[in-house]
Amino acid sequence: MMKRMRLFLAAATGAVLLVGGAHLPAANAATAGPDFSGAASSDAFIPLDKDIQVSVTLTLRDPGTVTSIAGHITPPGGSQRAVTFDFAPSTAAEAVVTGRFGIGKDDAAGEWRMSVQVARGGAPRSNAFVINVSARQGISDAGVSPNPVRLVKGKDVKVSVKAGVTDAGSVSAKLVSQESDESFDLGDLEQGTDGYFRGITYFSDDTTTGDWKLEVYATRGGQSLKGVASFTVEAPARGTSKKARARVTIDAPAKVKKGAPVKVSGKVYRGAKKYPNKRLEVYFKAKGTSAYKLLGFVKSNSAGRYAKSYQAKKDGYFRVKSPGTARTRSALSPQEFVDVRP
């Protein structure tokens, strides 16, 4: 069942600078004028709790004849503010220039109108753009299914998380026991076609019973928002099986160029100790698909560490599984998203 979440602000201190670029969502271009090619590009958004500096990039035509660039931008219902540019003369046919301006937590989202004045030895000429500034990120609701989670002797029970989050750059989740120090890290949640973010993990029959909480973290531009919801876990009717616990960590690059190697690495534990020479399964799920596919196997070394590289082909999620044995439970790593760039 989805629940309203208690929200906590966990924003990074200091000003945040967002660097615009070709891979950020493109802003809409109004009448760009003769001085620029194509649309402006920016990832501007309303911050959670403090002023931030954001950037916008434009492609300047014939930069060798330009003597100065200046600009200003006006939010809906607000007053204009300056946009400063890092222009330097160039002999190239075109050059990318970056402008920077401030956004405050009380500013309005929507269409911000930017005017850029370009001088080429005479009177400056005006170029108009529209920058779409997205709303403040938020967590509206989230829940765990099933709730309560009823443990079953000798089996792993699937536990699903669903969260309603808006305007975030990334969303992750953890399940944390209120009765012990046990927790499950789900890693990066995946956004579905309905807009909700989802993730799964599995509870073994010896998972701590009682009160638990779901923690959802929404992050963008160095600012984080945390939402908390509660659920419960019930003991198995026939007791627990006698097996040692396992745990798998995972690390992978957040971004990588298409065709480059993606190194998936981490450690595997049995109980609180390293788990040497353990054969692990590496899985991948392409963004927008519904199922993980087995990529291959990797064995941990004497220190319990593992590493395996794969060619980057598509955006997607990696997970590593430690299969169970007669004496040891199975374990699943958090989900790790890798953004594959052209």
Provide structural commentary.
It is a single chain. By secondary structure, this protein is mostly beta strands. It has three domains: 17-133, Immunoglobulins (Immunoglobulin-like); 137-234, Macroglobulin (MG2) domain (Immunoglobulin-like, Sandwich); 246-341, Immunoglobulin-like. Helix content is 0%, strand content 55%. The chain contains no helices and 29 strands. The strands form five sheets. Strands 3, 4, 5, 6, 7, 8, 9 and 10 form an eight-stranded mixed β-sheet that branches. A hairpin with a 2-residue loop joins β18 and β19. It is elongated and about 85 Å long. It starts with a strand and ends with a strand. The relative contact order is 0.14.
Known CATH architecture of the largest domain: Sandwich
CATH class of the largest domain, named: Mainly Beta
State the total count of DSSP E strands: 29
Tally of separate domains: 3
Question: How many DSSP H or I helices?
Answer: 0
- What structural class do helix, strand and pairing data support? mainly beta
Describe the oligomeric state of these chains in a short phrase.
single chain
What percent of residues are in strands?
Answer: over 45%
Distance between the ends: 40 Å
Outline type = elongated
CATH superfamily of the largest domain: Immunoglobulins
CATH names the topology of the largest domain as Immunoglobulin-like
Question: Any descriptors?
Answer:
3 domains, single chain, Immunoglobulin-like, six-stranded mixed sheet, 342 residues, 0% helix, eight-stranded mixed sheet, mainly beta
